[in-house]
């Protein structure tokens, strides 16, 4: 086949193997036909035209840090990695925007604009690895989204290669604009099922002040959750407001002894980057936390001391990794229902006999229960899967959503149908059919087209 001879395409099985999976638990991957690593939009368009003419599935990939199987291979697919399209095309200092290719790593963009006194806020925990294209395709969030918003709040303009190889430019670089449907919002978070993002213009902000940090310890997780809603209810807007439950704190302490007091059931980490007003914000937080039952509140007196306090949150990922196989889940509930969610997850862990450390972006109500299981033990896997389903059901029951930031991918496709309902699902399918009638774009992910995939 003509495309397979192109110099940016390989069919080497050893290379293909290393591109089959993202980082999701409980997700399978098929055997791909080829891997394309284009360097420019024209090559992406060539892949899509070829795939469309020959009805071959295409799986777009960024850095494969995804946690829902969205970038996993499907049988007979062309894996379309955007990793080589990694140039920052422009930082526009007058208009506070940056235009990048999709393979630019989030931290590379963040550091490049910081040199100009500018700030790109969406900061997923994977910011040193994940790509802007992947962040756009999943509408990634992160720690400081509680104050600044998620990826979709920053995307102004996109170049997208459509399923048949046509190139769409949509959105605009201006600060405002309402001409036509908001196709940018439609594409953001569409997980490679509606088009392939080949260029992104994002809005930037002036750099934030160095933050101050506080840590609050609680003897009951319910008290920590009440603190979150009461503190945000005062109208203050922290730049970070993170939660860790006891199993998470225990994992962190086992990894590195940070001298936490005994009997801790939950910890909140809060930052304010409001310069001279930051100390006042943290004092207000400490007052609310104490009134809600915090056993101890530590407030850093300067940013350097704050770095020591935030260490606890930074170590969560690596500390939980040491626990073994795990599914990093992602549910967002109204902040006022956080306590019920955290208690519910603890009850599910007890019911199914699995460990589920729970942490997350409490300020957004976006929690990450980590279902720990033993992949070599079928019974443990089964109990883990049952616990996962129970967490999905709990999130929906509390008025939340099955995913706050990691996306649907393969992992949550069945649950998406439950969340959307009949009418929502039919509208999703109509959109998918309009943009990808042959169902070649990332089939098996997000929405199923009956009769096509
Ligand atoms: C340690 C760790 C911490 C994480 N922390 C966070 C967090 O705080 N917040 C958060 O939101 N996520 C987090 N994630 C999940 C993940 O990093 C994000 O979903 C990220 O946006 C994926 O980017 P990626 O480049 O790795 O994309 P991939 O995993 O390669 O792809 C993700 C999805 O996007 C599609 N895609 C990729 N590139 C394109 C493109 N150019 N055009 C169209 N579709 C495309 C893929 O088909 C797939 O469906 C974390 C993951 C890890 C491993």
From TrEMBL:
Q: Superkingdom of the source? A: Bacteria
Tell me if Flavoprotein is a UniProt keyword of this record: yes
Keyword terms: FAD, Flavoprotein, Oxidoreductase
Kinase as a keyword? no
Q: Which Pfam families match?
A: FAD-oxidase_C, FAD_binding_4
Q: Which residues form the FAD-binding PCMH-type domain?
A: 28-207
Cofactor(s) needed, names only, are: FAD
Task: Cite the Gene3D superfamilies for this sequence.
Answer: 3.30.465.10, 3.30.70.2740, Vanillyl-alcohol Oxidase, Chain A, domain 4
Name the PANTHER family on file: GLYCOLATE OXIDASE SUBUNIT GLCD (PTHR42934:SF2)
**Official protein name in the record:** FAD-binding protein
Species, as recorded: Amycolatopsis cynarae
């Amino acid at each position: 086949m003509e495309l397979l001879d192109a110099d940016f395409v390989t069919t080497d099985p050893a290379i293909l193997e290393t591109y089959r999976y993202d980082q999701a638990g409980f997700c399978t991957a098929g055997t791909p036909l080829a891997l394309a690593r284009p360097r420019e939009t024209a090559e992406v368009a060539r892949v899509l035209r070829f795939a469309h003419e020959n009805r071959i599935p295409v799986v777009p990939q960024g850095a494969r840090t995804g946690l829902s199987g969205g970038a996993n291979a499907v049988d007979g697919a062309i894996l379309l990695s955007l990793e080589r399209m990694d140039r920052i095309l422009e930082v526009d200092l007058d208009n506070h925007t940056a235009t990048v290719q999709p393979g630019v790593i989030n931290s590379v963009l963040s550091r490049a604009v910081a040199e100009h006194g500018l700030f790109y806020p969406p900061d997923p925990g994977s910011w040193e690895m994940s790509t802007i294209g992947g962040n756009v395709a999943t509408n990634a969030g992160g720690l400081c989204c509680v104050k600044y918003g998620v990826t979709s709040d920053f995307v102004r303009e996109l170049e997208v290669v459509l399923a048949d190889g046509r190139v769409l430019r949509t959105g605009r670089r201006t600060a405002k604009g309402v001409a036509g449907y908001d196709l940018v919002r439609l594409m953001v978070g569409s997980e490679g099922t509606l088009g392939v993002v080949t260029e992104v213009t994002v809005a930037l902000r002036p750099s934030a002040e160095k933050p101050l940090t506080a840590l609050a310890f609680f003897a009951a997780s319910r008290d920590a959750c009440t603190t979150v809603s009461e503190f945000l209810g005062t109208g203050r807007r922290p730049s970070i407001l993170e939660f860790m439950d006891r199993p998470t704190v225990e994992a962190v302490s086992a990894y590195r002894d940070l001298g936490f007091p005994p009997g801790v059931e939950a910890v909140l980490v809060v930052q304010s980057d409001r310069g001279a007003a930051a100390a006042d914000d943290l004092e207000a937080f400490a007052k609310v936390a104490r009134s809600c039952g915090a056993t101890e509140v530590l407030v850093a007196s300067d940013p350097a001391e704050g770095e020591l306090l935030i260490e606890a949150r930074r170590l969560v990922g690596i500390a939980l990794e040491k626990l073994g196989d795990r599914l990093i889940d992602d549910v967002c509930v109204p902040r006022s229902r956080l306590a019920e969610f955290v208690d519910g997850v603890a009850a599910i862990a007890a019911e199914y006999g699995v460990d589920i450390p729970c942490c997350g972006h409490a300020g957004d109500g976006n929690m990450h229960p980590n279902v720990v299981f033993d992949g070599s033990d079928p019974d443990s896997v089964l109990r883990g899967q049952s616990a996962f389903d129970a967490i999905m059901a709990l999130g929906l029951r509390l008025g939340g959503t099955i995913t706050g930031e990691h996306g649907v991918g393969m992992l949550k496709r069945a649950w998406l149908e439950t969340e959307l309902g009949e009418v929502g699902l039919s509208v999703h399918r109509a959109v998918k059919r309009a943009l990808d009638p042959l169902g070649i774009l990332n089939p098996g992910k997000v929405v199923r087209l009956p009769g096509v995939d």
